[in-house]
Amino acid sequence: MTPLTIDAERFAADLAALNAIGWDGDGGLNRTALSDAHADARRWFLARANAAGLPTRVDSAGNHSALVPAADPAARTLLLGSHLDSVPHGGRFDGALGVLCALEVVRRVHEAGLELALALEAIDFTDEEGEYLGTLGSEALTGVLTSERLAAPRGGREAMLGAFQRAGLTEAELVHARRDPHTVAGFLELHIEQGPALERSGTQIGVVTGIRGNASFTVTLTGAARHAGTTPMDARRDAGVGAAAIILGVRELVMRDFPGCVANVGDVTLQPGAFNVVPARARLALECRSLDDDELTVLADAITTVARDQAARHDLEIAIEDVGRWTPVPTDARVRAAISAAAQEHGLSHVEMPSGAGHDAQVLAEIAPVGMVFVPSVGGISHHRDEFTSLQDCVNGANVLLGAAIALARTL
Ligand SMILES: [Zn+2]
């Protein structure tokens, strides 16, 4: 039996229309959460759903949805979606492609008159990218959004409250967006890979095994500030040299002993910071990621040991501050199987792979089985105006999402 496919022509026209909302050419896509352009994209989404005869809703966290009810009004819901907001000067595919694919899936299911055991809901989550808080809409829906998070959002509390007011949201009403977990059967998110693995291996579909956890540290090295012209090279306690040794040591360790993991020193500050003064102090922003929680613990121990060893070698004092840990989130085996089977049905090559970036799916995993479909990112570029995925890869992804959603509506 040939599988149901999306309407590729309609999908391509919609992709072009959505891509244009907030597009600033050389400035990239400016569609940050709750901005005017973001509101335009969300209105466009509801209008396209209504034009297809689908009921829509907006919850009290501003999440926008298009629905296909099941025959049984008591049926649970399979959520499909991602986010229409972008980072400043971002790309056109991060998040938006997942929402558009979800919209096309619910339209096709509705048009085909399929009677499914689960209701389907294409959803656009509010502020995934963190203009104000990050994964705000999905946290409100799952009920994990805390008052502590709302008290100190990374975008600033005043700015967040101002944006809420413009969008007609209130802090007090966010709690009403919470769904009873028993009503959510699962969540399926299509997303661009945002890395080069699929393109490099020439694979069409990524079946995401899980979202990597992260352990982050601030490392402070203390040596001695001395005259850079008069102090002999072998008599220096140079915090800058220590920082360099840690950067290289961490990279070597991960590449040698932790295949499948990543680590990064993303920021280094040297003080006093002058041509002619040996640096007395270095601060490093160090993080590492793994798909496995136990491995993350071992990895975090190993990289902090490298830091301590290098500090000792260069006669520096060291302080390591733990600044955050996010547990890895595995996807559900049934959802992975449904994605692989759908790719197979459409004759598409597919591979299991972890997600290095965070997504709404990791929040939904708190209450329901989740899975993610990845499509290739040209050059691995993301959060940049050059972010691109070919139309054929977008169509392939939408077909896999459609096939997986239909299968999961039978099995979840
Ligand atoms: Zn995204």
Taken from the alpha-carbon principal axes, the silhouette is elongated
User: Percent range for helical residues?
Assistant: 25-40%
DSSP E strands, number: 13
Bound molecules: zinc ion
Which value, in Å, is the CA radius of gyration?
Answer: 24 Å
In short:
The protein contains twelve helices and 13 strands. It has 412 residues and is α/β, with parallel strands linked by helices. Strand 1 and strand 2 form a beta hairpin.
What labels would you give this structure?
412 residues, alpha/beta, nine-stranded mixed beta sheet, four-stranded antiparallel beta sheet, 12 helices, 37% helix, 22% strand, elongated, binds zinc ion
Molecular structure report:
The structure is a single chain. This protein has 412 residues and is an alpha/beta fold. Helix content is 37%, strand content 22%. Strands 1, 2, 3, 4, 5, 6, 11, 12 and 13 form a 9-stranded mixed β-sheet that branches. Strands 8-9-7-10 form a 4-stranded antiparallel β-sheet, covered by helices on one side. Helix 3 links the parallel strand 3 and strand 4. The chain is elongated, with a radius of gyration of 24 Å. The two termini are 22 Å apart. The structure holds zinc ion. The site of zinc ion (ZN) has 6 residues, from loops.
Topology:
Layout: H1 8-20, H2 36-51, E1 56-58, E2 64-68, E3 77-82, H3 96-112, E4 119-124, H4 136-142, H5 147-151, H6 157-167, E5 184-192, H7 197-201, E6 205-211, E7 213-222, H8 239-257, E8 262-271, E9 281-290, H9 293-313, E10 317-326, E11 329-330, H10 333-345, E12 350-355, H11 360-364, E13 370-375, H12 391-411
Parallel strand pairs: 3-4, 3-5, 5-13, 6-12
Antiparallel strand pairs: 1-2, 2-4, 6-11, 6-13, 7-9, 7-10, 8-9
The structure holds zinc ion.
Zinc ion is lined by residues 83, 94-95, 128, 191, 359.
